[in-house]
């Protein structure tokens, strides 16, 4: 539609083309790590939109997460014909205490489920929502359970004529399934308390990055 904006592939390509113009002295470790994370996100997003099975994609991601690597994957939902979709980013990373963190980055639909900060002029929303899994490797069948949760996150991104998704479905039905992994909603990370009043239509893939 006319409201559709850039895809993850387009947006990441713009970022990596910029990084490629920098010399080695200008590329710090954080920039290099982010570039690697985004390239992985782009690859997974390509898999999601390919003929690969959700089970295969989910197993691949689960293995990487359980190696305690930080993983960014595309999120959100694909709209049915005539219905809007929305792009999110999901991040899985293990902190210094050995806890697995699941973060949802959002810049639009669904922000009403995030922490609200009241300011003088308007209410703003924290762009990050975070869950914590205390000790996933101590759980029985932990890889199988993690892959299952990942598959639940991926399914809404694949067009399905029989199923409609929106922010209410994701935040009220899909994200709470992390409880199956003993995951609990916790406060947003202090260093990532980015506040937003929302986005313009069609800019989610750019804004969420």
Largest sheet: 5 strands, antiparallel
What is the helix content?
25-40%
Question: Helices and strands, in N-to-C order?
Answer: HHHEEEEEEHHEEH
Q: Would you tell me the overall average pLDDT?
A: 85
Amount of beta strand:
15-25%
Overall geometric form: globular
Total of helices: 6
Distance linking N and C termini: 22 Å
With strands numbered from the N-terminus, the spatial order across the biggest sheet is 1-2-3-6-7
Unreliable stretches: 199-206
What is the radius of gyration?
17 Å
* Number of E-type strands: 8
Based on secondary structure, the structural category is alpha+beta
Secondary-structure map with pairings?
Elements: H1 8-20, H2 29-48, H3 54-66, E1 71-77, E2 86-94, E3 100-105, E4 116-118, E5 123-126, E6 128-133, H4 142-154, H5 167-174, E7 183-186, E8 195-196, H6 204-207
Helix pairs in contact: 1-2, 3-4
Explain what this protein looks like in three dimensions.
The protein has 209 residues and is of the alpha+beta class. 34% of the residues lie in helices and 20% in strands. The protein has six helices and eight strands. Helix 1 runs antiparallel to helix 2 and helix 3 (54-66) packs across helix 4. Mean pLDDT is 85; it is low at 199-206.
Produce a short descriptive summary.
The protein has 209 residues and is α+β, with helices and mostly antiparallel strands. It is built from six helices and eight strands.
């Amino acid at each position: 539609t006319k409201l559709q904006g850039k895809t993850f592939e387009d947006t990441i390509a713009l970022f990596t083309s910029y990084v490629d113009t920098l010399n080695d002295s200008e590329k710090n470790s954080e920039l290099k790590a982010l570039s690697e994370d985004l390239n992985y996100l782009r690859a997974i997003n390509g898999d999601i939109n390919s003929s690969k099975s959700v089970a295969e994609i989910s197993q691949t991601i689960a293995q990487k997460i359980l190696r305690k690597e930080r993983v960014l994957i595309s999120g959100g939902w694909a709209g049915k014909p005539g219905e809007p979709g929305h792009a999110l980013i999901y991040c899985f990373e293990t902190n210094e205490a050995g806890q697995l963190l699941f973060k949802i980055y959002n810049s639009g639909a669904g922000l009403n489920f995030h922490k609200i900060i009241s300011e003088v002029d308007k209410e703003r929303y924290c762009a990050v929502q975070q869950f914590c899994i205390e000790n996933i490797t101590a759980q029985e069948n932990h890889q199988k359970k993690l892959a299952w949760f990942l598959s639940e996150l991926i399914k809404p991104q694949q067009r399905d004529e029989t199923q409609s998704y929106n922010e209410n479905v994701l935040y009220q039905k899909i994200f709470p399934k992390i409880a199956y992994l003993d995951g609990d909603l916790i406060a947003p990370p202090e260093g990532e308390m980015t506040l937003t009043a929302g986005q313009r239509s069609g800019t989610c893939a750019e804004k969420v990055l």
